[in-house]
Amino acid sequence: MMDRNVAIIFGITLIGIIGVSILSPAFPEIKRGLGISDVEVAMLVTAFTLPGIFLAPVMGMLADRFGRKKVVVPCLFLFGISGSACAFANFELMLVLRFLQGMGGSALTSLAITLIGDLYDGTERTKLLGYNAGVLSLGLACFPFLGGVLASVNWRLPFLSFAAAIPVGILALTMDCPEVGEGVPFLQYLKDSLKILRSSRVLVGFLSGCAVFLVTYGAVTIYLSFLLEDRFGIGPEGRGTIIAFTFLLVAVVASNLDHFVAKFGWGVVVMGFLSYTLAFLLLPLSPNLELVILALSLFGFGHGTVLPSLQNLVVSVAPIENRGAVTTAYSSMIRIGQTLGPIFASEIAVHSIDYVFFASALITFVFALINGGMEIVRGVQVS
Predict the structure, then answer these.
(1) Which CATH class is domain 186-383?
(2) Domain 1-174: top CATH class
(3) CATH 1.20.1250.20 boundaries in the chain
(4) Tens of pLDDT, residues 226-262
(5) Which residues does 302 contact at the CB level (< 8 Å), separation at least 6?
(6) Three-class secondary structure of residue 298 per DSSP
(7) Which of 298, 113, 65, 310 is nearest to 204 (CA)?
């Protein structure tokens, strides 16, 4: 199972998520080191995430037409060189470098999923997508801790960690990738890709992914820490430990996705969204930390089942010659959710932080119903 290709794909996935997660605990030190405001600190994130909304589908189309390695490898080098160069830049140059780094990172996680779809199928594909989501979650749990350690030495050191993309790019040159894009005229390729993207199942999957990251980046990424501090007086080390526990649980659940899919099929997505709903309802209502941990465990189950299941859908519905375009279009929807989530949550939090979690519960419950309806329709069609 863990062959050379899988190890390289996991490396690509980890590089794809390191761009913000390793910097997040270092932002106060970066702010003081550069002498910038809170708004300007946020611009370092926006400059990195913005290119992915528009460039990810372009990268996917290029990967379909010219081959995966011809896109993945240059992206890794661009990510590594421009990202590590931030360690030596002033704020204005750093914004430019972060934008370039965002271009390189715009499609890395989705192209990693594409490669799994290309190289593996059936149960093995489902298992590897679960493992890949587990690796991603482990990265989200560990990178903030690593970034905090590096920043405690010097605030520029977390930027140097981006140089890890360069050896991953060198290793990616040795991957066994199938030939793609041969014999299909470009206009026909576009027509076929759009046909896949217009199917109701894919549209629901895309909207579900956007919704997941809308509520995650709003309620969990931003306001969970405020809730833990305001309600229970938990300091930064305790909050970091609780968040790390949550994503470690996501990793465990995602790594066993194949067992859940074998037992529940697409219904596992419905179960996952219902777990999200219960988690978001419990969090603001919990009178003690034990119930908070229970709520976050439910969130971990939801995240560990929904995300890799949606990825499995995306790579399964597209033939190899269109898979890059479909997976990166899905990545764009995720970026939209990541971008809108903090704005959405901030507008609601003006009234009460609790309302952020209640609104998130409502959204996830609606998507549980939508995905449940899709499952019923599929069952009727099959029968």
Answers:
(1) mainly alpha
(2) mainly alpha
(3) 1-174, 186-383
(4) 888 888 888 766 777 788 888 888 888 888 877 887 7
(5) 272, 273, 274, 275, 276, 279, 364
(6) helix
(7) 310
